[in-house]
Amino acid sequence: MKYSFLIIGLAIGLFACQEAPKSEAIEESALPTTHDDWSKNATIYEVNVRQYSPEGTLNAVAEDLPRIKEMGIDILWLMPIYPIGELNRKGGSGSYYSIQDYKAVNPEFGTMEDFEALVKKAHDLDMKVILDWVANHSSFDNVWVADYKNYYNLDSLGNLQMPEGTDWSDVADLDYDNTELRTAMIDALQFWVRETGIDGYRCDVAGFVPTDFWEAARDSLEAIKPDIFMLAEWEDPAHHEKAFDMSYGWEFLHVINGVAKGEKELSAFDEYMAKQDTLFPKEAYRMYFTTNHDENSWNGTVMERYGVEGHKTFAVLAYTFSGMPLLYSGQEAGMDSALEFFEKDTINWGDYELQEFYTKLLKLNQSNEALWNGEYGGDFERLTTNADDKIYAYKRQKGDDAVVVILNFSDKAVDVNFDKLPEMEMMSLFDEVEYTSLSEGVELAPFTYHVFHTP
């Protein structure tokens, strides 16, 4: 998304798509999008270019790619890199999501040559690059407006207007009943794949745009790059039939926020999993996270939402529960500030205090098949303990690979015993201690965790 979640009364918006699964679960006859082999254990990192460095440039991001790769990242998602509209601009720097030209680089970030060099360096490091794409709307002074005003939904006086039901006063709504607009938008999508070699797109408010457009767009992109990767900022099972590889786990984020506030019991995690299993095909990739640019800027930092003691416990859950883990710029630095959205606000990297923590989790996702994405991952089993009101424990297993996660979501220390746990040789991810059995139980301090995995 873009701005604040006041948006759309949230109704047509993001979390409304949590209701979108009022659409029936995908029928067995539907053919979900197939994934290329490289993505089966991929992880993803969101790059906020403006705030990433004092320079706020693509070149500064490129310099940091080896460090990002070493953390265990496979996919770089860059927030929009295009020129930002001047007309009706919000704040001094404007919103990334108010796009003035779909085929150019924001000169504040650098040049097209800089971007091409970043893509090449990422590819040399065996990473993929996806761009944020805003198909639903553009800036009011987009290069299309002068000659192609018919691309837009106009009001009764023939004027551009912001998307209905939103407070996005700096963007003009595009008209997908117009086939010429569809053709132009697909041409722009093809441009970046063909000219710069990017590997796909993260598609902003994907549910605001007709699904048949996304399906046509994917077909056109696959003609250029067969292993294209598409991520929907939405939560609709139908998107996985033909258009998208992965969708947001927005509802999961709302569940964990509710647990953190004390508004939901730990059983909400089980209810969520049961719902997802019903709605989404096993082949669908889901993206899980504790923060991103929207959540950080508008709803608070992970420290504010989960507590200084508890934020790592929720991160362990998000990175081992199901799906592909997302790391947002600055999380590995223990960022405890809500970054400005419309102004320059550089991340304070410090000594990267949480880099080792996230690296361990990300690399476990890459190496242990139990945590792989979609159908490639292992089965989920809730483990019953003597303290299920405080402890959430589960096992994921595929073949000989297994991961056992034990999370204490309370402010009390707990001696955890399991009703049933198979004997298996496991290692502690964070303690690097070998356990031949967990059957005698483990002790967990308040708001802490254990992650055990097969060697």
Provide the residue-averaged pLDDT.
Answer: 92
Helix-strand category = alpha/beta
Residue ranges: pLDDT <50 for 5 or more in a row? Answer: 1-30
- Sheet with the most strands? 8 strands, parallel, barrel
Strand content: 15-25%
Quaternary structure type: single chain
**Count of helical stretches:** 14
Shape: globular
| CATH class categorisation of the largest domain | Alpha Beta
| CATH level 3 topology of the largest domain | TIM Barrel
**What's the N-to-C terminus distance?**
39 Å
- What is the alpha-carbon Rg in Å? 22 Å
CATH superfamily of the largest domain: Glycosidases
Q: How many domains?
A: 2
Q: Strands across the major sheet, in which order?
A: 1-2-3-6-7-8-9-10
| CATH architecture descriptor name of the largest domain | Alpha-Beta Barrel
Number of strands: 18
Identify the notable features of this structure and list them briefly.
globular, 455 residues, alpha/beta, 18 strands, Immunoglobulin-like, disordered N terminus, 8-stranded parallel barrel, 6-stranded antiparallel sheet
Concise synopsis of the structure shown:
It contains 14 helices and 18 strands. The protein has helices spanning 16-19, 49-52, 58-63, 65-70, 112-124, 179-196, 211-222, 239-242, 250-261, 267-279, 293-299, 302-306, 311-320, 355-367; strands spanning 44-47, 75-78, 128-133, 137-139, 171-173, 200-203, 229-232, 246-248, 285-288, 324-328, 379-383, 391-398, 401-408, 414-416, 426-428, 434-435, 442-444, 449-453.
Structure description:
This protein has two domains: 7-377, TIM Barrel (Alpha-Beta Barrel), CATH 3.20.20; 383-453, Golgi alpha-mannosidase II (Immunoglobulin-like). Helix content is 28%, strand content 17%. The longest helix has 18 residues, at 179-196. It has helices at 16-19, 49-52, 58-63, 65-70, 112-124, 179-196, 211-222, 239-242, 250-261, 267-279, 293-299, 302-306, 311-320, 355-367; strands at 44-47, 75-78, 128-133, 137-139, 171-173, 200-203, 229-232, 246-248, 285-288, 324-328, 379-383, 391-398, 401-408, 414-416, 426-428, 434-435, 442-444, 449-453. Strand 11 and strand 12 (391-398) form a beta hairpin. The strands form four sheets. The chain has an eight-stranded parallel beta barrel, surrounded by four helices. The chain contains 14 helices and 18 strands.
